[in-house]
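Fill-in record for Zinc carboxypeptidase.
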Amino acid sequence: MNTANPFYPIGTPGKPWGDAERAEWLSRQTRQRSYESEVVSKIERLRDRFDVEEYGCLEYGDERFPLLAIRSPDWNDDLPVVLVTGGVHGYETSGVHGALQFVDQHAAEYASRVNLMVAPCISPWGYERIHRWNPNAVDPNRSFYEHSPAQESAALMQLVAPIRDRALLHIDLHETTDTDETEFRPALAARDGKPFTPGGIPDGFYLVDDSENPQPEFQQAVIAAVEKVTHIAPADADGNLIGSPAVARGVIQYPLKQLGLCASVTNATYKTTTEVYPDSPRATPEQCNEAQAVAVCAAIDYALAHL
């Protein structure tokens, strides 16, 4: 969609969608890749080194998606817990594959020091459709609250409930893409009957801290590590990143719990949301995955060093 035309092709400007508009939107979504072959198969290959559990199952029409989590094989209740999540927005590819790369290449380094829980693809329907929402046109990453309207969010909250107060760190892996501006924000405005105001997409990696419990030194430690892999997004002329003030280089803040964001699901001291920019001419898919894995390692290293 051309951002010069703020009217999305579904619905009536100024009027929120009803059932008919949601059905029309759903009818336009097509399966473009396989959760089973691209994600589940990779998780299955980790079973000889890690514990894998099915923590839920999404059923949409005749489609069934097992929700899988990877855990440390020798869980020790005396150790701190680290939660890594990816694919809350299914289209954000490096969030999924960066989480899996971390497990495959780096998780063993933290054995005997932390308990790891990794949910690499929270929204498999969105992964297959390369979409931000679930089939009900609901954004799982605005739905982490009691009586959630998103099955994806509710399932993760149930998984995490036993470790909510014991987690030391939660890092949630995301991307900001050009399609945020050309498709997903216009769709959101249309769905909610609001005007769409074009914005900009930061060119590079950045982080989202929790404005209710900011950890600036922690965020900068992650930025410093990732900068060795890919470039950090500069603030715009107004000192903003994606419309929010840059509180430090490559860092903005959101009230995570108030917005129902995934990074609010625990009471961890250290929380962050990564934002990789895969559409940059300066970044390859391999760099994007590596940036996510490096961010996880840097986050764990900092948290353990500051226990």
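KEY FINDING: Confidence is low (pLDDT under 50) at residues 1-5.
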